[in-house]
Automatic annotation (TrEMBL):
InterPro entries: DNA/RNA_pol_sf (IPR043502), RT_dom (IPR000477). Residues 102-297 form the Reverse transcriptase domain. This is Reverse transcriptase domain-containing protein. Signal peptide: none annotated. It comes from Neogobius melanostomus. It holds the Pfam family RVT_1. The lineage of its organism: Eukaryota, Metazoa, Chordata, Craniata, Vertebrata. PROSITE patterns: RT_POL (PS50878).
Amino acid sequence: TNPPVSLPLELISTSKCNEFAIFFHDKVQGIKNAIISTTQIATLPPARHLELTHFTPVTDKTIEEVISGLSSCTCCLDELPTRFLKSVLTSLLPQLVQLVNISFETGAFPKALKTAVIKPLLKKSSLDAKVLNNYRPISNLPFLGKVLEKVIYQQLTYFLLSNNVFDTFQSGFRPHHSTETALIKVTNDIRMNTNAGKVSVLVLLDLSAAFDTVDHRILLHRLENWVEISGTALNWFKSYLEDRTYFVEIGNCVSDKISMTCGVPQGSILGPLLFNLYMLPLGQLINSNNVSYHNYA
């Protein structure tokens, strides 16, 4: 379940774990600090007729299906190995259902599930293993947190599809869309322009540390005003984002915990979906300038 340790054995230590933890934190903060701040929060959201005020309580069947469908990977944050939990699921099901429903009712994500363990993974085997910048952080989260996220993901996705909230030209992390639909759309736009005797200019934008630099204030504004989430449902997302921490683990060594003040959790189920909602105004802004566009992530 864990990525291979690529660090030389002599560098596996608590101090090296702390170096990685600070490096990953400072790298994100450096990118975030370079982003030009604004007092305005994007464009006006489209009018919607329905709102999501609360999440629907779950049944034993729902939780059983969710847990069975999730990967059996385990990390050091799990009190029980995932495979063992699945093997005794019948006995634990009532308590797990109660946990999920209390979380929904109170609009709170359990603090014990807000910590991530990060393992540095060398980007390429040919790179210098002693250079911190040659590693990417691989994040692991508690299994029970993923169960909660999966149920929220299902209910939120149903709401988004039912109310046409997704950007029409969004292909990434969206049901029935993929890189294939993105390529077909872009290729078709270029061919139509060519047939009309026009010239196409393709501008590609890739955001550095996109998930890690998500501003929580702006994301919550998107959820409230662009998606129409309110009440305990909005409180749940506030709780989900706040007071998160991570630590780095290499072998048997771990770093001190580092607070996460921005970003959506890497390796999470909700992260990609929340990022899509965070970026909702982008398409409207581009379209207002009569420019064809397509989003993938």
